[in-house]
Design brief:
Helix 2 runs parallel beside helix 6 and helix 3 (101-124) crosses helix 10 (388-404). The strands form four sheets. Strands 8-9-7-17-18-19-16-20 form an eight-stranded mixed sheet. Strands 11-4-3-15-22-21 form a six-stranded mixed sheet, with helices on one face. With 448 residues, it is of the alpha/beta class. The longest helix has 24 residues, at 101-124. The protein has twelve helices and 22 strands. Helices cover 32% and strands 25% of the residues.
Amino acid sequence: MNHHTIKRLPVDTGRSGWEAISTRRFPMQTLESDVRADWLIIGAGFAGLSAARRLSQLRPGDKVVLLDATEVAKSTAGRNSGYMIDVPHNLASGEYSVADEKATALEMEQNRLAIAFAAEAAAEYGMSKETFDPSGKINAAASERGLKFNRNYAASLLRIGEKHELIDLKQMREITGSDYYLGGLYTPGAVLIQPADYIRGLAHGLGSKVNLYEHSPVLELTRQGKDWKARSNRATVTAPRVILAVNGHVESFGYFRRRLMHIFTYASMTAAFSPKEFGSRASGADRWALLPADPMGATVRKISSSGLSRIVIRTRFTYDPSLQVSTKRIAGIAAEQRRSFDARFPELQRVPLEFSWAGALCLSRNHVPAFGEMEEGLYSACCENGLGTVKSTLAGMMAAELATGTGNGDLETYKDQPIPSRLPPEPFAWLGINSVIRWQELRAGREG
C-alpha cells in the first residue's frame, strides 16, 4: 500500500455560524511549488494543529508542512458545538453513566491531558474568554427520563469521586430563561470554546513554526525510497514522515476501511439579538452551555459579546458513508430545529436562524481511535468518536510523540488499544445504523 490515490474529498454543507462570526488574522497561502520538509501533516483541524504544536515543542528545528483541503475552521473543526469535555461522554451509549470505573478513570486522565495542552496553547497565544472558557457544562433534562439519566450519572460520578452539582427547575430557569427544563447536572471540568476562533487562534499562534497551505488537498500519496510524496493540485510535498489527521477521511487513503462510522450532525445559529429587547427572562444569563441528558437530544448554547447574543441548537444524527449530505436535508432539519428552539424560547420566535450547517463525526463500534503507524513513516491520528475537540487534540499530541520516538507513560497507555471493529457490509450497515439512530432520537422525545 505504498501508493494511495484519493478519489473523494469530504464535502462541507452549509456555512457554520461559528466560522461566519469568527475573525481570521493571518494570510492564506496555497501550495504553488514543490516543497521538501521533515514532516508533513495532512489536515489542519484539532488533530493536525495539535500534532504541529507538539512537533514544534519536540523538534523545534524541523520543517513542518501542514496541508488542508479547504480553509482553516471552514471544515469539520469549525463546525462542532465547542465542548471540551473531561468526564465520560460516549455518544454511542444510551446514557452517560459510568459502567467501567477503571476505564473511565483512564479516559478522564487522557481527556484532561488534552485539555491542559489546549489551555497552554490558549494562554500562550492570548485567546480570549469568548474563545476558551473553562466554565464547565450542564447536562439538561427536559423530561422525567432525562432527570433519571442525570440522577444515574450523578451517582456514578459520586462513586468515582468527581465533582458535580444537581440543579433544580428554578435554577435552570434562572440560567436559561426557559421553562422547558426540569433540572440539570453541572460538571466543572469542561471548557467551552468558540471552535472556529480556537482553531484559527491555534493556526495563527503557530505562525512561522509551521508552513500552512490551504485549498491544497492531497490527491495522491506515494512512498518513494525513504520518503513520502504528496501531490496536491499544483505542487508536491516530500517528507520522510507523514501524519494523517483527517478523521474519517482516513478511509479515502485506504486505511481502516469498513471499520469507521461516518455520522453527520446538524446545527443552527440564530441571528444576533439584544437580550434587552426581549428582557433577561427570555434567554437568561449571558452565557450558558447545555448538553442533553439523553445523548440523542438537543445541545443548546448561548453566547454573548458587545451586548448582543446568539443561541446555537444542535440536533439529529445520520449515517452517511458517502461523506456528504444535501442542502435539502439541512433545510429540513433546520425547520425541525426551529420548532425545538421555539418550544424552549417562545419569546424569541421572531429571532431568525441565520446559519444552518452539517458537521461530520467519526465513530468506531468499539469506541477506539484509528491510531498508529500504518506504514513506515506514515501515522494516523483519526476517529474522534464524537468528541473531536478533546479526542482529536489527544490523537495529534500522541501521533507526534509516537513519530518522534518520545516515549512516555501516556503514549504507552494510549497505544494499548485494539483497532476499530469491522462494520457489517452495506447496505446492512446503512439500514442498521440509521434505524438505531432514528429509534434513539424518537425515544429521546422531549429532550430533542
